[in-house]
Hints:
By secondary structure, the protein is α/β, with parallel strands linked by helices. 49% of the residues lie in helices and 10% in strands. Helix 3 (53-61) packs across helix 5 (80-99) and helix 5 packs parallel to helix 7 (130-142).
Amino acid sequence: MQPTQIKLVIFDWAGTTIDHGCFAPISAFIKAFKACGVEVTPEQARGPMGLHKQDHIRSLFQLDEIASQWEALHQRPWSEDDVKQIYETFMPLQIEEAKLYTELVPGLCASLAPLKERGIKIGSTTGYPRVVADPILVSAREQGYSPDFSMCADEVPAGRPAPWMIYRNMETLGVYPPRAVIKVGDTVPDIEAGLNAGTWTVGLTQTGSEVGLSVSELEALSPEEKQQRLQAAETKLKNAGAHFVIPTLEGLSAIIDQIEAGSVPYGC
Length: 268
């Protein structure tokens, strides 16, 4: 089997490199819908995580529980104008909430150091628009994490699961073919975007939205409860087609070793 050299790893933000448990978007979605009289649970808000935020709102409206609340309150079905209205309410909330959740996930910089030593470039993609992402980039840089390039969902024709943000990273950083790239994320749209781009895909469980717990909340679980949550998240990401699923980024270097040794079939 012909070995592959990995030249670029593209990371998601919330739930992957910052914001352990992915809380900033959840809080903003709940508050935005509540401002319009609709109650959204944290579990419902997490469901479409990874999409462009306007697509996320549209997906929430498609839930029967939320659509029926809206129709009872407004005496009509929801519309695309309502999606835009919620998004306009959501945006200032998201900007402020995101500023509260910029802490790097534990061990991020230590996990990336071996990649940099190998000359691997670091890219990033996010469902956040640029106005939300820029303050996060500043905070991450102050904590020691500064990707070589970043792309936001409002800078391409369509966000995840479309591959455009990945391709923009590859183009700007001068990396091809797609098999020389790994896409890392904690949501199904992350995995789907990587597959659509033809890259390797790595799903994260412990820090991500599928588990949805802060560091302290995770530590408070019994070993059995923690294993159940991690297993459920792993199953969901594997079912989405992830080539690999790991609890934390600490396992990423070993995955790169496997790929470069040719021990894992490309496109499996």
